[in-house]
Design brief:
Length: 194
């Protein structure tokens, strides 16, 4: 009987680790759902904020916009001849939807050689690191969710070259990040997690 209960508890624990939060538009609910012994999303996001100086609500809003908090998110496959699954539009993967080259640069520069895009802790650090680089490279305020996201979506060089003028998709994403960051900030203040 003890084995069965232990097995059920282990399966339940592992399911909780890998599951997507159910209320992704509420930061307090996300953190309450993702608070365990081996993982604590609030602690991870707070640590990323402290290390890189990027507000926790902006980190969360970036993840919300990029992957919807889906651990193994990927861009959809293109269709060959309209129906045969083909290549993906980019190598973006995981919570941060980081492309391979940006992820490798992050791992190399930070020394986090075993970092995984499917780890919320690593994803939060990556996003904060990338936004911190946007602050340094393109003189963006660490509180400007809109401009930080444009840098994130376009890349630092393209942002600088185009003076922050992105595609319609980038602009829509930047508006979404800005709105969600404001919403998350208010929620976190109300539930005492900010």
């Amino acid at each position: 009987m003890k084995r069965i209960l232990l097995s059920i508890a282990l399966v339940s624990f592992l399911a909780k680790c890998a599951s997507t939060p159910t209320h992704t538009t509420n930061a307090c609910a996300v953190f309450k759902q993702k608070n365990g012994l081996l993982f604590n999303w609030h602690r991870s996001a707070k640590k990323a904020e402290q290390v890189y100086g990027i507000p926790m609500p902006i980190i969360l809003a970036t993840i919300y916009t990029e992957s919807g908090f889906q651990q193994r998110a990927r861009p959809p496959r293109r269709k060959l001849l309209g129906f045969i699954p083909w290549k993906r539009s980019s190598s973006a993967y995981g919570y941060p939807q980081a492309i391979n080259s940006a992820w490798e640069e992050y791992r190399k520069q930070t020394g986090y050689t075993s970092a995984r895009r499917t780890s919320f802790d690593h994803a939060a650090k990556f996003i904060a690191w990338y936004h911190h680089k946007s602050v340094a490279r393109n003189n963006v305020s660490p509180n400007d969710a809109y401009a930080l996201y444009l840098n994130y979506h376009m890349g630092h060089n393209a942002y600088a070259k185009n003076h922050g003028q992105g595609s319609m998709i980038a602009i829509q994403g930047a508006h979404r990040v800005q709105t969600m960051a404001e919403q998350y900030d208010m929620q976190l203040r109300n539930c005492g997690m900010r």
